[in-house]
Model the fold of this input.
Amino acid sequence: MSDECLEIVVFIFLAIFTSISFAWIEAGINKISFLSQEKEWKILFYEPKILNHFAVYHLTMAVLALSINFSYFFIKIKRVIFKKEYWPFLFSLGNFFFWVALEDNMAMFFMKEPYTETSWTNWFFGATKFWFGWFPNWIILAYSIALICWSISIWKVKKRKTN
Done:
C-alpha cells in the first residue's frame, strides 16, 4: 500500500473517531439541556436560532468538523496549487460528507431516538422507508457523495503511481 493510500485510510479513521465522539458529546448536551433549568446553559447552546434549528454549539461544531475533515486538503495544498491535482480536495470533501452523516446517525443512536418519518433531521429532504425503519434521504445522499469522492481520489492516486 502506498503512503498516500495509507494517509487516506488514516484520515477516514480520524473522521470515524471524531464523528462518533462529537455525536456522543451532542447526545450528552441534549440530555443535560433537557434536564437543566439554568437559562445560561440553554442560551449558550440553543440561542440564537439560525434557520430555526442551529445555534452557537452547531456553529462551533461546524468549524471543528471543517477543520478536521479538510486538514488533508490543507496538508496537500502545494500539490493542488502547483501540480493541479485536485484529488486531495475531493477526498476531503468526501470525508466531510461522511463525517456529517455518521455524526447524525450516531447522535440518534446515543440519544436512543430511531429515525421516524417526521424526525427533525428530515426537515429538508424527507426520509425513505426501508425494512429496518425510516432513514433520512440526505444521509443516503451524503454517504453516496462520500463513496464517489473517495473512489475518485483512490483511483487518481493509483493512476498516478502507475504512470
